[in-house]
Each structure stands twice: as C-alpha cells, then as structure tokens.
Design goal:
Blueprint lengths: L5 H28 L6 H31 L3 H8 L1 H29 L21 H50 L1
Helix pairs in contact: 1-2, 1-5, 2-4, 3-4, 4-5
Length: 183
Amino acid sequence: MRQASTPVRSLHKMGLGINLGGTIFGLVALNPSVARVGDRRERGLVLNEAWTRFQSIGTLAMGVTVATWRLGGLKEAEGDIDPALAGIKNVLLGGALITSVASAIAGRRIARQAPEGATPVESGAEPAPETPDEAARSQRLSAFLGAATVVLVAGVLGLSSALEVRAVQKMEKSRGALSRLFG
C-alpha cells in the first residue's frame, strides 16, 4: 500500500482548515457584523478589503490542498485504501477549488464597482438599494459560493477522516493475518 508523507498530509489538512475556518468566519462573523458600520460605502470598503486579504491566503491554501492531493501522492495512497471514497473526495475537492476561485473572482468584481472598493452594501451577503446591479449579482453569487465551499470542504474533511479510519483498519487486519501465520 502506498503512503503519502507526513508533510504532505499536514499541508493538505492545513489547507483545508484555513479555507474552511476563514470562510466560516467570513460568512457567520464578518458579513453580518459589518452591518453595524453606519455608512454603506464604508461597509463595502471594509468587506472588500477583508475578503481580498483572506481570498489571497484562502486560494493559495486551496491550491496547496489540491497540489498535495494530486501531486503529493495522497490521491494514490487514499485510492489504495478505498477507491470509491477517494473518488468522491476527488470530486468534492475539485468543486471546492472551483467555488473558492469563483468566489474570489466575484469578490473582485464587487470591489471594482466603486473607487477603492467602497461598493455600498447592507451587509456582507445583502446588497443595498444603491448597490450597482453587477455588484449585487456578484454579491449574491459570492454568498452562495461561500456556503457551497463550506459544504464541499467539510465533505472533504469528513472523507479524509473516513479514509484514515479505513487505513488503520486495513493495517490492523493485515497485522492480524501476519500474526496468525507467524505467531
């Protein structure tokens, strides 16, 4: 059975954790809290700056996660354990990469609708009446993509845990067979 190295596994999990934690923070803490800022343009400025900073790290983290999966031997190692679960993880991970990148693009589109990214908004997920139409569409899309990313990354983490459990079970089973032969 093939094995991926500990650094590869660690980078894979860190990338997932960064993406999941940052996205959840943005969706449940930052987006609603910015409504406390009195000026709608200032809300947009704060949101766009914060999300741009996170998306730089979040997109890089997702890239590292996918690279460790595809190029670091993790896909093959986990495919040896359970091909069906590894296949589902592959699809979810691809979806998470797509939603992460698409969300970053939507965020940039929102920010470009006003000087310095001061696009007026009600909250991080709700356009203001004066939000330009393109920015409003991008904002709604970004909110959907953020929620989809959370679901997909959580699914990848769940499958990663299931694959780790299966790996331990396979090792215990093979040790049991060896001890019956030689024990």
